[in-house]
């Protein structure tokens, strides 16, 4: 086994503390990655707060770094290569979804970067809040030159989560897109929709983010509590990407969807109640998406490099991780925290 160091919580409610961690010895197709920057996702906070958890947890599933060692069978990477790793590190590889390059929908469920189980030895996966990660080369991605590694880290979770529906729904020039919520997911949905050539509007509870919306490239902002504006925008958007993370009424957003358009809900993934009439009038569709497969993730990174798309980040030394999580819990960030793991060296 290899030894590194990282930030771990032993059970629900515990603060993260710096501890030695064990990583597996490299298999033939593995690379060892020195983790330089790891994004902090809301799902990290949810996992740490999950009631009844009694096993140690090392969060982190959107990170960038450098290859420090390669297994004997590795062909895609060499020592010194800049790489990125997302929230999936393995899958069955043989089910219909995996064969289509949608490992995120693996019928046997993908192996998650943390809080998962290794498919080969049954050990728990420990995430990227650590100085080293060992991963199969098939689930590491070349980090294109020109992408800032800190600002690129959130692309591997927040970015791919919104890229997947935008691409699947054919967003491009001539498409009208609305993004509900301007947080970690939403700000990247705006940037990507604009870069794809879509006319892009932000839907927000207040007008306070109008300046940010314009800076991100949005063409308009509609306050979701303004009934007159909502009524005027009825049936206007081909795609509405809903990134709101808490339970809410989908009805007002479905009314904004154009004929044969789609409301894609990627923020709140719990139960929802929908009036079928809201779908019937206009042949509207309700969909969702989660993460992305390997081909889509690689394509997103290349697109982001070509169009200079990265997350708006606040980079923080990893020793401040507990303060970061407390701030994230009260949404005190615009728009993504990224841990600098250099202080673990």
What does this structure look like?
The protein is an alpha/beta fold and 345 residues long. It folds into 2 domains: 2-157 and 292-344, Quinone Oxidoreductase, Chain A, domain 1 (Alpha-Beta Complex), CATH 3.90.180.10; 159-288, Rossmann fold, CATH 3.40.50.720. It is 24% helix and 27% strand. It has 11 helices and 17 strands. The chain has helices spanning 42-49, 96-99, 149-152, 158-168, 184-195, 210-215, 227-232, 251-254, 276-280, 294-307, 321-329, and strands at residues 2-8, 17-23, 30-40, 63-70, 82-85, 88-90, 111-112, 132-136, 140-142, 176-180, 199-204, 220-223, 237-242, 257-265, 285-288, 313-317, 336-340. Strands 3, 4, 5, 8, 9, 16 and 17 form a 7-stranded mixed beta sheet that branches. Helix 6 (210-215) links the parallel strand 11 and strand 12. Helix 4 (158-168) packs across helix 5 (184-195). The longest helix is centred in the C-terminal third of the chain and has 14 residues, at 294-307. The two termini are 19 Å apart. The model has no long low-confidence stretch (mean pLDDT 96).
In short:
With 345 residues, the chain is of the alpha/beta class. The protein is 24% helix and 27% strand.
Write the layout of secondary structure elements.
Elements: E1 2-8, E2 17-23, E3 30-40, H1 42-49, E4 63-70, E5 82-85, E6 88-90, H2 96-99, E7 111-112, E8 132-136, E9 140-142, H3 149-152, H4 158-168, E10 176-180, H5 184-195, E11 199-204, H6 210-215, E12 220-223, H7 227-232, E13 237-242, H8 251-254, E14 257-265, H9 276-280, E15 285-288, H10 294-307, E16 313-317, H11 321-329, E17 336-340
Parallel strand pairs: 10-11, 10-13, 11-12, 13-14, 14-15, 16-17
Antiparallel strand pairs: 1-2, 3-4, 3-8, 3-17, 4-5, 5-9, 6-7
Helix pairs in contact: 4-5
